[in-house]
Amino acid sequence: EQEPPDWKDSLLSAPNLLVTPHVAFYSEESLKDLQRLTARAIVDLYNHKLPEGLLNPELFPGYLQRVTSNG
Prior knowledge:
It is built from two helices and no strands. By secondary structure, the chain is mostly helical.
């Protein structure tokens, strides 16, 4: 499947179509990916590295300052 969808597709102009954000997923592979990515982010934080996919990276310097300060 193409993400994001091709908005020129005739199916997307159906009058009874409701489009919602894609937030639901479930498969064994997706759960393993989620676990792997979460573990990688924890390791990155422990090593004072910016985790991949962090939604608010502008806050990371303040986080580093807090966790590395001696006070």
